[in-house]
Amino acid sequence: MKNLRRKILIVEDDESIRYLLEQNLAFEGYEVLVAEDGEIGLKRAETDHPDLVLLDLMLPKMSGMEVCKRLRSTGNDVPIIMLTAKGQPIDKVIGLKTGADDYLTKPFDIMELSARIEALFRRAGKVTDYELSYQLRDLSIDFKAHSIQIGEKMIEMTKMESKLLRYFIHHEGKILSRETIMEEVWGHDYLLSTRTIDTHVTHLRKKIERNPSEPKHIITVHRVGYKFTK
């Protein structure tokens, strides 16, 4: 069985959907945990340390968005796929801004869900396999705390800026297209355009480059993407 060590928490109040997900994911070789409301789901996410959470949006006692917000507010970066019966674009925007990594609208194909799960694990693996800290010139980068320290000064990064910088460092010297970066760092987020990458790069340059207008580390490769050099 593959992925035997991966632990997935399903937070879903619909018993039939919860059972279907549990059976299919167990068949795929995952260790499966379940919760039928938001409060239980939050507790299990905090105490059982799952590798990924499937989180229904509309839950008793505590909504999926509130669960997601609570987890992110404590620094918990577990990958979260938000599940909902609603299809309005605004729900997707709110869910992703709350901290979800992906979004899937019911009814969905179980094969698509499996693909989304595997993609998130690949992305998480690429990030977590690298060091938790990195020294760049006089900058001490702490990926766990999403921060950069230079002397006594502390500069905060957003979670996505931290992921992007880590991805660049992990692929030092390689030319990375915007499309590749989008797929590997952001994954299945169809609201984003490649301009989002450019915006994040601009913010990162202001934090790590001595002269952001003449970058020495995150180099633009014309009409292609970017390359990181130390």
Radius of gyration: 19 Å
Structural class: alpha/beta
Please state how the strands of the largest beta sheet are arranged side by side: 2-1-3-4-5
What's the number of helices? 8
Biggest pleated-sheet summary: 5 strands, parallel
What is the average per-residue confidence, as pLDDT, rounded to a whole number? 84
Q: Number of DSSP strands?
A: 12
What is the oligomer described by this structure? single chain
- What general outline do the C-alpha atoms trace? elongated
- Strand content range: 15-25%
Low-confidence stretches: 126-130
- N- to C-terminal distance: 41 Å
What string, H for helix and E for strand, traces the elements in order?
EHEHEHEHEHEEEEHEHHEE
Helix content: 40-55%
Task: Write up what this structure looks like.
There is one protein chain. The chain is an alpha/beta fold and 230 residues long. The protein is built from eight helices and twelve strands. It has a five-stranded parallel sheet with strand order 2-1-3-4-5, with helices on both faces. A four-stranded antiparallel sheet has the order 6-7-8-9, with no helix packed on it. Strands 10-12-11 form a three-stranded antiparallel sheet. The longest helix is centred in the middle third of the chain and has 19 residues. The radius of gyration is 19 Å and the shape is elongated. 28% of the residues are buried.
